[in-house]
Design a protein that fits this description.
heterodimer, A: 347 residues, alpha/beta, D-Maltodextrin-Binding Protein, domain 2, five-stranded mixed beta sheet, B: 401 residues, MetI-like fold, 3 domains, two-stranded antiparallel ribbon, 8 strands, globular
Chain lengths: 347, 401
């Protein structure tokens, strides 16, 4: 008995030591990833559309595609990724202490997170906003009718703060019920323990798609916050940050230039413009500063697809998950179509 | 001359050897060594952590305690609003944790004693039911039981509009948002009644001492129980009536989505409280049973041969001796109740871990400071309980000489 308790103590001390005493990473993240042979990408607990797990253990989804795109850019292989599914509460710590190379998991880009958590956000890959979902039989049609309502909310997110701000600003006296486990949260809402469920609207669509009778629920029209979701990397590694940022831009840029996974080979053979040629690595040396192969952007589009293809597959009306967040006219449309998706030029 | 020097050096050698071989000196040396190593490890961890945090550009320090928290807390005993600070959130979490743990400790101890005694009952049915209770409850995980009470019992209660009216008086309402009951609203002169209550308690205390002294001196007994009851209730009620009943009640009423007015206990509180009480009562029941069995049967026989009634035998002979065996495991069960209350996070009860180690940590990012503060709280509570109970334990243990 004595021996075991000593062993336990030893293990505890070791755990604390490893947490507090991990040396500062001297090497760049790219070197580490290349040496290791695969990318460690952090996603969240499975949520339809963004990061979902199939029966055979394969991850897919719009945020997962960013991880796969980065792996394609470095290794030319979208499968050289080790996915880490971490709860919201410890996500930034797991990134900052070097456990994950990057995170791509519906994390909102905020000033506080960008400046005080030891991480850098790269480029927005989804413009979201927080909303409310209610049961249709409640008769509520607007968030401003929720006075005094009990609202189910997840902990460890910007959602909690937005809810309090919205409630204070509009004197709604909303009562939050905070859950760590999304399943318990959804179950409480479904059984009527809360009048409303609040989450990012895309998250609500994802939650709703997973409910037994999605038709019984209504997402209210109000959007109470701005939630630009972006992949993030550790602070002070600008090469790695550029790589992840330009991977997101490559997804968007490819769609702007009309390059998709089906025509990319054709485009590389006969580039329609100098920008296409530079983008696909036929001309110039855009890869040099990034420290990755010349055909990185080609690999991204070939292996993962462009932004539009990813959106349609996981989030759009065509998605088999029934999430159906309309893209046309939203902030997630290309800038040429009135949206905010815009890539700096590839030159 | 040479002989003298030799003797001196032998003497000094033997003095040195004496110092080294002295067990007391050695133990002092080892204590200094261990203390030094621990100190060095702490210093290393502290400086290295600070350096790492700085190198990664993560905020550190306790300044955040003064900044506005901004988020809401579902339910708190002390008033809270989103404009309060993180330091105050810590306090809100502590009070919420202590509230549920202390109530659970009181009730679980009473329930545990009852079940422990029932398990020793000569009635087969009663002892079997008590045994099944203990075996089933003790052998399933607490988290499972908390989720059971929350999801299977309190979540499936009717919605506010179809509330269950407990007592059919329209003032105790139970629904899936919680248990609503009237809230006393003291008037201007209510403090006089509070003072009367205090006076009554002090009076009863001295009454009991006086009665015991008189019994020891003269052998005459005084009806302490009934007279105390009279003083405890009579005095405050009299004062309350004389000062013009300065107390009003706020009754819960259904308005909009929920009840307004009165006060409420949320379902997460009720589920956590009931789960903690029921789970730990099974442990206490076993402690009590073991304690009672540890008192030899000869004590009962000796007491009956002195002519004591069975009730007195239990109260004056068995329980005081059994307490020696019951107390140490009881203390550790109480500490476990406080620590297990942190499982509240699973069902959304805003305890210290939920509001501070989850929400505040996420909003402020000061992981190390916050985790250290939470650890400090739990260890101080445990050490306080343990110190108080060790003091009591020392008094009741056999004085062996």
């Amino acid at each position: 008995m004595r021996k075991y308790s000593l062993l336990g103590l030893g293990a505890g001390v070791l755990a604390v030591l490893s947490m507090a005493a991990t040396p500062v990473l001297a090497e760049g993240t790219l070197d580490i990833v290349q040496k290791r042979g695969h990318l460690r990408c952090q996603v969240g607990p499975p949520s339809p559309g963004f990061y979902q797990l199939s029966a055979d253990g394969t991850w897919s989804g719009s945020d997962v595609s960013v991880c796969r795109a980065v792996a394609s850019a470095i290794f030319g292989d979208p499968n050289k990724v080790e996915f880490q599914s971490v709860t919201s509460a410890v996500r930034f710590t797991a990134l900052a202490n070097g456990e994950s190379d990057m995170l791509s998991r519906t994390a909102t880009w905020t000033a506080f997170r960008d400046t005080q958590l030891g991480l850098d956000f790269t480029a927005v890959n989804f413009y979201d906003g927080q909303g409310f979902m209610v049961r249709k039989d409640s008769g509520v049609n607007s968030a401003f009718e929720l006075k005094g309502a009990t609202v189910c909310v997840a902990t460890g997110t910007t959602t909690e703060l937005n809810l309090a701000d919205f409630s204070r600003a509009n004197n709604l006296d909303l009562q939050p019920v905070v859950f760590e486990d999304n399943n318990v949260r959804n179950d409480t809402y479904l059984k009527g323990g809360c009048d409303a469920l609040t989450n990012d609207k895309s998250g609500l669509a994802s939650n709703k798609a997973g409910f037994p009778n999605p038709g019984d629920h209504l997402v209210l029209p109000e959007t109470i916050s701005k939630e630009p979701l972006a992949p993030a990397v550790r602070q002070n590694d600008s090469q790695w940050m550029s790589l992840v940022r330009w991977t997101v831009f490559a997804l968007i840029g490819a769609e702007e230039m009309g390059i998709n996974s089906k025509n990319v080979d054709e485009m590389r053979k006969n580039p329609p413009s100098p920008e296409h040629a530079r983008f696909l690595g036929v001309e110039g040396d855009l890869n040099k500063g990034l420290g990755i192969p010349k055909d990185w952007a080609y690999n991204i589009v070939k292996k993962v697809g462009n932004y539009g293809e990813i959106y349609d597959k996981y989030m759009g009306d065509g998605s088999p998950l029934g999430i159906g967040i309309p893209r046309a006219g939203s902030a997630n449309a290309l800038w040429t179509e009135g949206g905010l998706m815009y890539s700096p030029p590839f030159r | 001359m040479a002989a003298v020097i030799e003797r001196e050096s032998r003497d000094s050698r033997s003095t040195f050897a004496k110092i080294v071989n002295d067990e007391r000196n050695r133990s002092i040396f080892y204590q200094i060594l261990v203390f030094g190593i621990i100190g060095w490890v702490c210093w290393y961890l502290f400086t290295n952590t600070t350096a790492n945090l700085e190198a990664r550009g993560m905020a550190s320090g306790f300044d955040f305690l003064g900044s506005t928290a901004g988020f809401s807390i579902a339910w708190s005993i002390i008033p809270y609003s989103p404009t309060d600070t993180y330091g105050y959130v810590y306090l809100v979490g502590i009070v919420n944790t202590l509230m549920v743990s202390l109530l659970a400790i009181v009730l679980t101890t009473i329930l545990g004693f009852i079940i422990g005694v029932l398990r020793l009952s000569h009635n087969w049915l009663i002892s079997t039911i008590a045994a099944w209770y203990v075996e089933i409850i003790r052998n399933t995980p607490l988290l499972l039981q908390i989720l059971f009470w929350y999801l299977a019992v309190f979540s499936v209660l009717p919605r506010p509009k179809q509330s269950i009216d407990l007592g059919a008086m329209g003032i105790f309402q139970l629904n899936n948002r919680g248990l609503y009951f009237p809230e006393p609203q003291p008037g201007d002169l209510f403090w006089i009644t509070m003072v009367a209550m205090l006076v009554a308690v002090v009076a009863v205390y001295f009454l009991a001492i006086w009665a015991k002294r008189r019994q020891l001196a003269t052998g005459e007994r005084f009806p302490v129980f009934w007279s105390s009851l009279g003083v405890l209730f009579g005095l405050p009620i009299l004062v309350y009536l004389v000062t013009g009943s300065p107390l009003e009640w706020s009754i819960p009423e259904l308005k909009g989505f929920n009840f307004q007015g009165g006060t409420k206990l949320p379902p997460s509180f009720l589920a956590l409280f009931i789960a903690l009480v029921i789970y730990h009562a099974s442990y206490i029941a076993e402690n009590v049973r073991a304690g009672i069995l540890s008192v030899s049967h000869g004590q009962t026989e000796a007491s009956s041969s002195l002519g004591l009634k069975p009730g007195w035998t239990l109260r004056l002979i068995i329980i005081p001796q059994a307490m020696r065996a019951i107390m140490p495991p009881l203390i550790s069960t109480w500490m476990t109740v406080v620590k297990n209350s942190s499982l509240a996070i699973a069902i959304g009860y805003p305890d210290l871990v939920a509001v501070y180690m989850q929400t505040s940590l996420n909003q402020s990012g000061h992981a190390i400071e916050i985790v250290a503060m939470v650890m400090l709280f739990y260890s101080s509570v445990s050490l306080t309980i343990s110190a108080a109970m060790n003091y009591y334990n020392e008094r009741v243990q056999l004085k062996e000489r």
